[in-house]
Amino acid sequence: MTKRNVTKLTTVTSGPKSGGSDTDRLVDELRRRIVTNQMPPGSRIRENELSEEFGVSRSRVRDAFGILEERGLIERIPNKGAVVMRLEADSFLELFDVREVLEGLMVRLATQNTEPEYWDDLINLFGADLEKAVENNDFNAYMAAIAQFRQTCIEAAGSGTLRGLLDDIYDRVLSMTRRLMLVPGRASEGFRQHQGILRAMQEGDAEKAERLKRENIRSARQWFLKYNDFLL
Amino acid sequence: MTKRNVTKLTTVTSGPKSGGSDTDRLVDELRRRIVTNQMPPGSRIRENELSEEFGVSRSRVRDAFGILEERGLIERIPNKGAVVMRLEADSFLELFDVREVLEGLMVRLATQNTEPEYWDDLINLFGADLEKAVENNDFNAYMAAIAQFRQTCIEAAGSGTLRGLLDDIYDRVLSMTRRLMLVPGRASEGFRQHQGILRAMQEGDAEKAERLKRENIRSARQWFLKYNDFLL
DNA sequence: GCCTAAAATATTGTTGACAATATTATCGGC
DNA sequence: GCCGATAATATTGTCAACAATATTTTAGGC
């Protein structure tokens, strides 16, 4: 868990540039292409192509595929090859269920472990500027803020085990969030919900924060159900 | 996620014998040795040794190590080798936290998805015979029953995503459960708690089942805190 | 023109050899 | 005898060639 997850974490937080081995770089880049739909679900990916493109041996590509498979981002069929995993409506709903309890736990632990002032920066970030940005459909700004929120919470929660599980589903959550954001009204609702959660966290009310976070995911689930014809 | 997890699941449920590729067999056997403390935490494991012992090439061993690392069972230090991951007290407590919410979700979904008679066999299993076995410290019987409970619930929950996350922590949970069972009084308490959960599930009361399951894990956590000097 | 069989091609799976790195043993100086 | 430098060994990291398998193309019969 430890080493690889640390590598992954720094990637997630500090952007696409990342250190580590050739294999790690490959994993990061492929991950990026998959979640940005540059490689849409069902795409076949050939070991040779990537090997040439990145100037590494096929063995590295193979190792990367192994990791990506373990993470559920690609599917490997023996002697046939690897394809980007398809995201079915069912699995989206499943994802909401686990997000609800895991992210709820995340904010509860984070609240318990911190002093009120820990949240000042984040509360500032989720202020008037961001609200205006959300109203103007500046999704990149909102996505970045959400990523920051997540990252800060995970750190405060201080549980490597929880972090590992959240990382496991991170890519799928990301792709889901990106889509859901397009639904008119969802982004601003999510924004207000995050404000509420942050207030509860600053007040040190862990139970309330957990409840609000769970409501946040539940309402996202509702929006998804309503609009899933457009989203899938 | 899909393919590999399916392989893993069948392994967990249907015992050490298992199909798949050389790599899969290796993963299973190493997993077994680690959770049974045949390879205690901190043990160094050499690629060559295993390659010879199993009569496979070092590449297969290498692949297996990659999977084991991803699952958090071993730690790989570049150019130094692989060692069995150490389990610290902190990580045990973390494990209880995530178990609480995930297994709570598991029984809630399982209850929602099933008819009362679905639980007949399991309620029978958690009957007078097993109670006597627990009183007589027949831990193997109890462990088997718990595994059955877990397996049946996961199937009923019907969420591949949840299953994947539970599988992720399964090995650590197992090693924790085995130890905790030795604490006088814990096993019989756990037994009664499972009876209560099963009753709630048969009654179709999903909320109650979830609450009881969470209490079950919380009480296990209490016992662990009290006796952790002996358990670690 | 269309279906089937077989050859040609492309792609993944596996291996053993070699390079890079870390660990251990040896030797000389003090 | 103890310490440090260097050589010897062991172990992991990487790769390119080869084998196994699947896919596509071609050829032939009807």
From TrEMBL, chains A, B:
PANTHER family: GLUCONATE OPERON TRANSCRIPTIONAL REPRESSOR, TRANSCRIPTIONAL REGULATOR, GNTR FAMILY. It comes from the Bacteria. Pfam families: FCD (PF07729), GntR (PF00392). InterPro entries: GntR_C, TF_FadR/GntR_C, Tscrpt_reg_HTH_GntR, WH-like_DNA-bd_sf, WH_DNA-bd_sf. Keywords: DNA-binding, Transcription, Transcription regulation. This is GntR family transcriptional regulator. It comes from Sneathiella sedimenti. The keyword DNA repair does not apply. Residues 20-87 form the HTH gntR-type domain. Residues 1-24 are annotated as: Disordered. Residues 7-16 have a biased composition (Polar residues).
